[in-house]
Design goal:
16 strands, disordered C terminus, single chain, 36% helix, 458 residues
Length: 458
């Protein structure tokens, strides 16, 4: 037994989405045996663009029952049935959330008529309900109203059940291990099955092959499936458009992060939000005050003409300044770690030798500051970061030269590397972007750098 369902909503994502109309047809594979259709008072304003799409406005639902008032009828008509809808995860997700807010666990087996249609009626340009019905001559009236769309879905489902091979496909879709009901409606299951459980970058594409999202993962397959289980509004909109997936292996998380960053910059995908925004950078700088004392301070990078060292968040900037104070016995007051007119009293940097109490001469203090500044401006000529390769026979590397990111590469383990010239044939050159610098800086904080003096492969 099936219940074919369609809802209209306020359009605010799964958790903020409220039902404005619901229509349910109980179907026994041959005919409709019961129906429940009702407007629903969402108890919140209906946006104008939703009214423009559905024709349902605030006045129409003002006297309609709320969801909790019809919840019993919905539970009764859907009891012991398979929940069927066009792009089922949306309708099912919204209804499940409405029940969750009432303290009721709503669980039904699911079938998606988009996915069934792609299997049983292959080759169509579009599987939207309107275009699909037009392509196979199914009448569709009252488009974007719950009853009209639900009834058209009944006729579509009836057509699909009559197709050759439908029994086997239906059985496979209802198999608890199949994941069919979870996958995006336009995505073939084998494309997920073929994904590796290894580190790398994945690319979601829409129906015309455009890259709409790029992500990285330590386990590509598990991360991709995570998108399909996520019920946020952003993920639901993304999943509706996913028709294909590509991937590239990276061998390690660091290389995956760098590959992802470069790919986002190149393709600027519709659904990527991170790395499109300009990172706010901070930097250390120095100046001499009227007493001749050299200060080390920090500020937003855009306010500094001659930065000494750049950071990608304020916390890292302050932490490095605290480390300088500890290492070179500098004064927290003159390193701008605390604002005070009195002597310093920083909770962490406690090595001050008294410049703020006039117990240390300006010349002695400035000598220590100059040593700290020299340390800040040291640049490693070449840093080589070694990482795991994409298979057991290779290694990966990331190259930094003169504090600039040069790129990454992969080398078979039996190849001996002793110099920059030896690396060149394997290097995938990349732009030295702010995001790449941030990624590498975070990695180097956890893992000490390796000099090029040592060969990459022993």
């Amino acid at each position: 037994m099936y219940t074919i369902i369609d809802i209209e909503t306020t359009g605010n994502g799964i958790k903020g989405n409220k039902i404005t109309e619901i229509s349910i047809f109980k179907f026994d594979s041959n005919q409709i045996i019961d129906e429940f259709t009702s407007l629903v008072n969402p108890q919140c304003p209906i946006p104008h663009f939703i009214t423009g799409l559905t024709g349902i406005d605030n006045e129409m639902v003002a006297a309609a029952p709320t969801f909790d008032e019809i919840a019993g009828q919905i539970l009764e008509i859907t009891k012991d049935t398979i929940f069927v809808a066009h792009a089922v995860n949306f309708d099912y997700g919204v209804i499940k959330e409405e029940f969750r807010q009432l303290g009721i666990d709503f669980t039904r087996k699911k079938l998606c008529t988009v996915r069934l249609s792609r299997k049983l009626i292959p080759g169509l340009q579009s599987y939207s309900l309107g275009k699909l019905c037009a392509a196979i001559a199914i009448p569709l009236t009252d488009r974007h109203r719950a009853r009209g769309d639900a009834h058209a879905t009944v006729l579509l489902f009836q057509t699909l059940l009559a197709k050759n091979g439908s029994d086997a496909i239906l059985k496979s879709f209802l198999n608890a291990r199949s994941q069919e009901a979870t996958l995006p409606p336009l995505l073939e299951k084998y494309k997920v099955d073929n994904l590796p459980s290894a580190p790398g970058v994945y690319y979601f594409k829409n129906g015309i092959g455009q890259i709409i999202y790029i992500g990285k993962a330590n386990n590509i397959k598990r991360r991709v499936l995570g998108h399909f289980y996520d019920k946020s509004n952003h993920e639901i909109r993304l999943c509706r458009e996913i028709a294909d997936i590509d991937h590239e292996l990276s061998g390690s998380e660091l290389v995956a992060l760098l590959m992802e960053s470069a790919a986002i910059k190149k393709h600027y995908p519709k659904y990527n939000r991170a790395q499109k925004r300009t990172l706010k950078q901070y930097a250390l700088f120095s100046y001499e005050d009227r007493k001749g004392i050299i200060h080390i301070a920090y500020d937003n990078l855009k306010n500094i003409s001659r930065p000494l060292k750049t950071f990608y968040n304020q916390a890292d900037c302050r932490a490095h300044l605290e480390e300088l104070c500890e290492t070179f016995a500098l004064c927290p007051k003159y390193c701008h770690l605390q604002q005070t007119s009195n002597a310093c009293s920083h909770y962490k940097a406690k090595n001050c030798e008294g410049i703020c109490r006039e117990r240390e001469t300006v010349s002695d203090y400035n000598l220590k500051v100059k040593l700290a500044l020299a340390d800040l401006q040291k640049v490693d000529d070449e840093i080589l970061i070694q990482e795991k390769g994409r298979n057991i026979d290779e290694k990966a590397f990331v190259l930094i030269e003169n504090a600039a990111y040069k790129g990454y590469g992969f080398i078979e383990k039996d190849v001996q590397i002793n110099s920059m010239a030896d690396l060149e044939p394997f290097l995938v050159r990349q732009e030295d972007t702010v995001e790449a610098k941030r990624i590498i800086q975070a990695h180097l904080k956890k893992h000490p750098p390796q000099r090029m003096a040592r060969p990459l492969v022993s």
